[in-house]
Specification:
single chain; about 300 residues; mainly alpha; MetI-like fold
Amino acid sequence: MAVYKPTTLQKGDQLPPEVQALVKKSARKKSTSSRQSPYSGLWSILLSLISVIYVIPIVLVFINSFKRKAYINKSPFSLPNAKTLVNPILSNYTSGMQKIGFTSAFVNSIIITVGSVFVIILCTSMCGWYITRVKSVFSTCMYYLCVFSMIVPFQMVMFTLAKTADTLHLGNPIGIIVVYLGFGAGLAVFMFCGFAKSIPIEIEEAAMIDGCNPVQTYFQVVMPILKPTCISVAILEAMWIWNDYLLPSLVLDKTKYKTVPIAIQYLKGGYGSVDMGAMMAMLVLAIIPIIIFYLVCQKYIIEGVVAGAVKG
């Protein structure tokens, strides 16, 4: 049996032809991978400008929240100075919170958003897994009904919805969660079905062989795998529910319960007068929670995309 003995190259010796070919091929790949498109710099500049355009409205709202009411309309794009700055500096925030009852509205929005997102994820993930694994006429019809619900305009059903919600006494923060479940199920089921198809069924079969029933298989095996999709659905649904104005205004009893978007509208006075300083301050407070939630969860979305790209 021949034994390979590595040879030591001396200075001036030439590499074998096979090694030289491999070195040239590796260098060629490296130069090709490091070569950038001639338009990459242009695309970077263009996308940076688009990002700035999207951020400008948020920056303007934040800047104007520290100005006096009279100067917001006169010079909305200028930075606050000694003349335009309110005194004390947080007076717009304190006055706005007192006028609209921001604390109670904030609590109502938290209850509605967290409860709705939790119920949507729990119910629609089960539904998506069931539709993917159980092939029947009923599951197929259920899937297409969920997809169809995404294209139905809200204006077609809002009057019937308001009457039904009033009849069933859903005009409270707990009752409206059921309404949000119905409207948020379409997109969520569609996303969960798409991801559940990529889960190897052998994993679930192995869990059942080990003695897991369907409920245990779902919560202990399927649910952890669906985590990236759960977070993606949570972000989309939370942004929609937190910022929603029309549905709570139709369903909720506004004399008892107000969400943040509804409460902010009460800063409008008679004859079209608006306390712009307080409104800008309340808009900042309304934006901050959803931005924090997105920044905390975005890394999980990226991990989910990477995991899905190498899933095989």
